[in-house]
Amino acid sequence: VNRGKVFTRALKDVRDHFVGMEPRHVAAGVQRHLEEVSGAMVRHYVNKTGHRKVAVVGGVHANVRANQVIAELPEVEKLYVFPNMGDGGLGLGAAYLGYAEHQDFSVIPKALETLYLGSSYCDEEIEQLLQREGIAYSRPEDVNSEIARYLSRGYIVARFAGKMEYGPRALCNRSILYEATQPEVNKWLNEQLQRTEFMPFAPVMRDVDAHLYLKGYDSKTSHTAQFMTVTYNVTDQCKAESPAIVHVDGTARPQVIYPGVNDGMYDILTKYKELTGRGILVNTSFNMHNEPIVCSPQDAVSAYQRGNLDVLVLNSFLIVNEQSRSDRIRSA
User: Fold this and answer.
1) Average pLDDT over residues 27-43
2) CA dist., res. 46 & res. 77, Å (int)
3) Rounded CA gap, 168 and 285, in Å?
């Protein structure tokens, strides 16, 4: 806390202005101001430089609604939000700076095509853990079909597969998945995970379905939308089919998956749509309240048990807790 005279006086002035205001109105005003200022800054520098492809980074750009405002500026041809936009991206920024200082400054780094850059675990390690913990499991021939089937029947599925994601967003390798058909899911699933989130859950969808659910989805933002870094206004079809992922302002923050990026999750979405006719699932991070996203199989087992979730997927292994779903149905 900066307790200097200037800041102390400024904070008092701010408090005086807020007397009698509801916190939600204050928050809405701050959000609106951020959108106006960031949009004006981008417009200024696009016009000044003539460069219409915009890349943004920094913790402010975790604000996906502000990113949408920037993307919708007519002056902007393309928007890229660095997917580890906060302090987590400093390491890579330092590496780029070191490279630039010793190389030709005209060399432009390639865009990140995937964020699956973290640790992974082989099936042998996972099976040893399950046997050591005495956890009953199966190993279906087509685990993705089983996942889609459980999702279509209203089960909560925690998916731990492949490499961990780089950055703050869970991109389906360390995610909890659920149907997006129930608007009340935001409340009861957060309670089950001991969270106090008020934002709606984010959707995951395939590239071939994105135009059905997102207004204005095109090449301007399609690359950065793979990383959950921008919101879109949603279509009426999206509101009707998937109310759980639509915010009060009619927007959603999607993860759009392309073939070759996360083939396992793409296959799950394909098979889920074959079963239900719907192309969207809820994707929320696999963790308990105030804990980081699970990293190891042991983390995943612990969060699965403490959250009393229905299904746990560890690579090709499937663990099902029928009791948890029965309890939830009875309480509902």
Assistant:
1) 96
2) 10
3) 9
Give the DSSP per-residue string, 22-79: -HHHHHHHHHHHHHHHHHHHHHHHHHHH---EEEE-SGGGG-HHHHHHHHT-TT-SEE
Is the pLDDT at 95 greater than 90, yes or no? no
Alpha-carbon span 179 to 266, nearest angstrom: 15
Cβ(268)–Cβ(148) below 8 Å: yes
Contact between 78 and 190 under an 8 Å Cβ cutoff? The reply is no
Q: Which residue has the tokens 């806390």?
A: 1
Q: Identify residue 118 by its one-letter amino acid code.
A: G
CA 113 to chain centre: 16
30 closest CA partner among 5, 65, 76 = 65
Which residue has better confidence, 99 or 62? Answer: 62
Closest CA to 154 of 182, 184, 127, 191: 182
Which uninterrupted H or E stretch holds 281?
strand 281-285
- Asked whether 211 and 219 are in contact (CB, 8 A), the reply is no
Give the CA dihedral 68, 71, 72, 76, nearest 10 degrees.
Answer: 160
Dist. CA 193–CA 277, nearest whole Å: 28
Position 190 scores a pLDDT of 86
Query: pTM above the 0.85 mark?
Result: yes
- Are 309 and 233 in contact, with CB atoms under 8 Å apart? no
**Looking at the predicted structure, is the pLDDT value of residue 304 above 60?**
yes
Consecutive H or E run containing 254: none
Q: Tokens representing 12?
A: 């008092």
Percent of the chain at pLDDT above 70?
Answer: 95
Rounded (10°) CA dihedral 165, 169, 173, 176: 160
Return the sign of the alpha-carbon dihedral for residues 281, 313, 114, 49: positive
What is the Cα–Cα distance from 256 to 239, expressed in whole angstroms?
A: 17
Question: Which residues sit opposite 80 in a β-bridge?
Answer: 55
